[in-house]
User: Fold this.
Amino acid sequence: MTQSDMTRSRHAPPKASAMLEALRGLGYSTATALADVIDNSIAARAATVYLRFVWAGSASAIHILDDGAGMDASGLDQAMRLGERNPLETRAADDLGRFGLGLKTASLSQCRRLTVASRRGGQTHCLRWDLDEIARRSDDGWYLLEDAAEGSVEYLRILDEQPQGTLVLWEILDRIITQGFSEQNFLDLMDRVEQHLSMVFHRYLEGSRPRLRILINDRPIRPWDPFLIDHPATWSSPVQRYWSAAALVEVQGHVLPHHDRLESGAYEPAGGPEGWTLQQGFYVYRNVRLLVAGGWLGLGQGRSWTREEAYRLARIRIDIPNSADADWKIDIRKSTARPPVALRKRLLSLAEDVRQRARRVFAHRGRIAQVGGKAPLVEAWQVEQGNGGMRYRISEDHPAVKAVLESAGPLLPQIRAMLRVIEETVPVQRIWLDTTEDKEVPRTGFAGEALAEVVAVLEVMFRNMIQKKGLSPHLAREQLLRTEPFHQYPDLVRNLPDTLTPE
Assistant:
């Protein structure tokens, strides 16, 4: 007799009611739960997914219908069981699942009754989980109920109109329809779901012949591209490929255009569902399905990087195969990931480069800080780093400042005192608060001003350079093209006349 034969054991199944109630607390939102359900539609090779939100107060419902391959009776039974698949099993390369829990845990996180009907080969089969029914049973067993509940059959009739496919029905939406929840709240929820799905599945939805269509109450969802690939001002690094745990990982950095380089009405949508600051960082995809949308994955020098305004334009794409799930510590909700140790140094190096590029674009409003060959840009403000910390100083080399100082005469001490007062009272904290709270960068560089305002200042400086500095009109224009903020208005500078009009 072996040692294993002598080992005493007992069968210890969990109580169904308690376990199912506990699984409801995994942290799904309605949007992430619906995305998990749609993963199953993609696995079934669906071309179209129809989401319908039905408002009826406490009797409201949500259903998801696809035109995928459908399931026979055995397949549906397996799909409705918790943990029907071992996450350690090898899966098809395009499989979006892992734990065998997503359909059930995602759905039951939002509702108390989950009904799934599937049609294949001219036959429709239906099973449901009903948490209230399970709670009423004295033996606390794991009971899958057959067919739809009374009053729910009407939702399933739409499935009979197509040759194959699957319908997932959520009823008794106790985690959604809470006290005070109104029809307007329901409509707002639909908008949030649309934003999330347009981001998570954007690579499926893109192109003239997309792999997938998703409709919410008959309205098609449009893809949201986090990287603005088609915008001419977007910077993209070369694609880098790394091997980790026998899995090929593909990485590419992007720096998005500054607000000033985006067309009117395009800035806010480009920020994403959570806004520019929160959407910065890494975007982790598995089989082109987005898992993580922003954040720095715990990377950083000394301490983990946080999402700061200065790096809001930095976004980095990472593509991993499903064989790397364990290596990247993908969770049940498919919403968190941690890079393996073997890749952290390489990802850190790329992220540092992308962040610094993004910071420069942010600081210079999307303009290159070098104009006309190798000549540096003359900036109005300088950063001075000393033992006491960082300070901002007005540059006395800026032509506008230099001209005043050289012509100041006996007023020079007062002017220098005035400049020092300005330097020492830069409202850094106020600017930071306004930017953080309003999610908008304060306007500088004549942004939003009439061109006549820019021309008026330009003409004053142009005249001073010619009359007092003795520069030719050509050299004066060249200097202005290298001077902040006039380097942003090259056409206005070049149109300055060779002959000055009398004052």
In short: The mean pLDDT is 88. Residues 10 and 157 are 45 Å apart (CA to CA). The first strand starts at residue 48 and ends at 54.
